[in-house]
Amino acid sequence: MDINRVIIIANTTKDIELKSTPSGASVANFSIASNRKYKAGDETKEEVSFFDCVVWGKLAELINTYVKKGDKVGIEGRLQQRRWENTEGKKLSKVEIVVENIQFLSNRGQSQASSENEGNNNSSSDNPFSEESIPF
Q: Which CATH superfamily is domain 6-117 in?
């Protein structure tokens, strides 16, 4: 039995690109950057890995609404390799993460609300859930 699961926490590198297929299905594409720090002797080094992501259906629409460039997200999904031929006949391939579940980890709504409402007692948030609707 093969296992193809990816779980990663990373930052988005650009805004979401939402499109529709000819049949009307929503598909979103975005990329993430994952940083890793490690020691090489006495020196701390950092490497960054970039990954392309694709998400389908209602989840694509939800991500398009709530995720922006620079947001931290937790992603669960699987790896998929796509193959195609370009106009010159060269065979190309790409490995991407097919997103099946996402957690919004940025506190973007609150930081925007606090900067927009300085000196104002009203607060707003991009969070679609009220405190009462969260069961924990």
A: Nucleic acid-binding proteins (2.40.50.140)
